[in-house]
Amino acid sequence: MKGRSVVLDEVQGRPAAALLVDGHLQDLLVDPADDQALPGAIYRVVADRPMKGQGGVFVKLPGGMGFLRQTAGIAPGARLLVQVTGPAESGKAVPVTTRLLFKSRYAIATPGAPGRNISRRIKDEDIRAALEALADAALNGASETLGLILRSACEGVDPADITADIVAVRDLAEAVLADTNGGPELLVEGAGAHETAWRDWADPAPDEVIEGGFADLGVLEMIDAVLEPRVNLLDAGHMMLQPTRALLAVDVNTGGDTSPAAGLKANIAAARELPRQLRLRGLGGQIVIDFAPMPKRDRAVLDQVLRAAFKGEAAETSLVGWTTLGLYELVRKRDRLALAEVLAGGRP
Hints:
By secondary structure, the protein is α+β, with helices and mostly antiparallel strands. The protein is built from 8 helices and 20 strands.
């Protein structure tokens, strides 16, 4: 199976989407339980109490609590508009922000951040100029504080479709921004797996979109493999991924060959594979890697491989570096619930 394919189906009765490149699973989205707030959802909330020492304030959501890392100018009882920034860990409040983003297939409206911006991936100056003019016309009459970002997916698209998309996201943003009176309420639902796939996997454009193909294309077996802690690295050994409450531990092994060359080979293979595994498994936070033994002089090579491997990842990742014990640390933003948690209670 060649090319880039988006497959839309269900797992355990929940909407799910898989991105396959040449038949290999590159990304996976599965909707969480119905009571989970989806990232991107926008709520009207009521400020509760500030948390001294934590630099934030709790806010009342419909049926739950959120945590806003901001206190300046927020008094208890104040009505606010907030957006969910990521999944809520078990037993913790939902992380939210007052910096709202309204995302659509071709555009992102940015209240409070005026200006027109076009994706840097669009290089042609004539196309950029045409898109800028199109954005100005579509936002004519909108608030001066409403900014707009045009996505790279705009390239090659009918201008009428882009205009309609901009107008729709502008109207949604203006309606929500005006709706500040009342108690806690969900104003904009977060994007589910299928919607996110259409929106975020459009660049580059998929060669095909398949509905209902998980069983036929072997996606269910691929998901089973992702749920296992062991990841085979072809002929270079394997690595084990073990989440704990405090961090994610990654252990790289060479197998029977313990030579320095085998260690470097396994470590390079693990470094290249790690971003995909974290993405598919929905793992983030503090990550500690115990690479296979290798000479210290080879660490510079591995540093370069890691930087290249994580370049372009959607989830913000900070490569911290080596510890005095010879471990490698990095921090990855949690952008979705862990797959094992979403599918808790059974295989797909």
